[in-house]
Amino acid sequence: MCFLRDIPGVLVILCVLVSASHALGEVINGPCDIFFQDVNNLTLNCSRRNIDRIPNWPEAMKNVSNQDGHVLITFFNNSITNVTELPPVPGNRVAISFKSNKIIEINDDAFNNVHRLVYLDLSNNRLSGDVLRSEIFQGPYKDGVYKSIALETLNLGNNRIHSLDRYLFQYTPNLTRLYLNNNPIEILDHVTILALFSATKLEVLDLAKTDIDSIPLDAFRGLVNLRQIDLSGNKFVTVPESLGLVGTSLQYLTFNNNPIVELNDDSFIGLTNLVELEVGENNYLEEVKRSTFTPLKSLRVLHLCHNRNLRYISHNAFRGIKDKWTLKEVYLDDNNLSELSTDLLPWNKLEVLGMTGNNWLCNCDLANIVTNQEAGTKFKAGEIPYCAAPMRLNGAYITNITASFCPTLDTTFAAKKGFSINLKPKHILWSILGVAAVVGIGMICGLLVNTIKAVYKKNTRSQPIRYFNINDDTNFA
């Protein structure tokens, strides 16, 4: 894999060369081909020659300038099993590819004569961690010590590496790009971390598809220049907290194809200088919660694509950074989204927006985003999303929907916040008379009730009981 962002122009040519040689179907037997672009640029193509050992260089190699010469040598797709000591290579910057051989061993001092080697591709071979040792990269022996070589890019992808020797990079102080992808590392053990510690100038680290599920908190301590890391295709259930240690330098993070279920306000803590974030192909990712992207104060490009179960993004996912908006490109393609909040982000400040491959419900909110907030002008040509619902809009471009089917409110009436009564004088008079009539009728009814009660009590009152003393009554004498 060629990271064009990081490889100088001469190394991009190597990538093109390797790709072109890969396209050749037949196997060629014969000497290597040599091409001169000019006196300072030479390409030696030994790809697909069915060779099993390093050949001698053609005499024409000597014509390259040692001061300004760029030399590209490729042994792509041969049967080499052992990299022996290479003959001297002229030139100021040398790139060599052993990609797709059967290498199981590399001799000590293999690159001793190529101390201007800046790019080395050993990917897609059979190398183990035990084979990789510092002696391989020793430079010329002088004044009782081995000198360093100029190596800047080392590709060890697609091998059988479980661990790295702690002294592996002892003679490569200029190493800035290291590719360990597609190796069965599983655990970043202590010696591997010590090896990374020694690569203090490292800028690019590829750990994709290495079966790791965690990164020790101190794994990146001291890597103050690390600006790009790829953690795709691993077993992370959360974004590693250890990334915060390189938050001031890290600019590019790729976090595809991991079994995470959610992104939240802890996911990207400390990554204040991240410029580009890619979170895609995470089949278990369901939601992006509140304040997820708040720490990313420098983010310019967000790829949140191909997460087939992602159904919800909180309207506060970008909380705290909307006032100082830096995002220019947002890609939400091929998820399981149906709705977005109108205040998710300032849509009109974007330059590019991708939303294809979702099940969009073309409702009033989406119409507001597309038309009123100008999101519809941010789609690339040929990448305009479709409506999935309601049924009458199924298959229509979302840029063709308008707010005409949404309720239109009387904004003049809606603006009145208080409650008021607007009555004419005659209405007030009638209201007073009505109240007086009700009160009068109530009083008359009350008097009638009291009168009836008084009459009833008078007619039904009992006679008083008379008492006498039987001792005084003569009838009983």
From TrEMBL:
Organism: Pararge aegeria aegeria
Keywords on record: Leucine-rich repeat, Membrane, Repeat, Signal, Transmembrane, Transmembrane helix
Residues spanning the membrane: 428-449
Signal peptide span: 1-25
Stated name of the protein: Jg16011 protein
Record has S-adenosyl-L-methionine as a keyword: no
InterPro entries tied to this protein: Dev_Immune_Receptor, Leu-rich_rpt, Leu-rich_rpt_4, Leu-rich_rpt_typical-subtyp, LRR_dom_sf
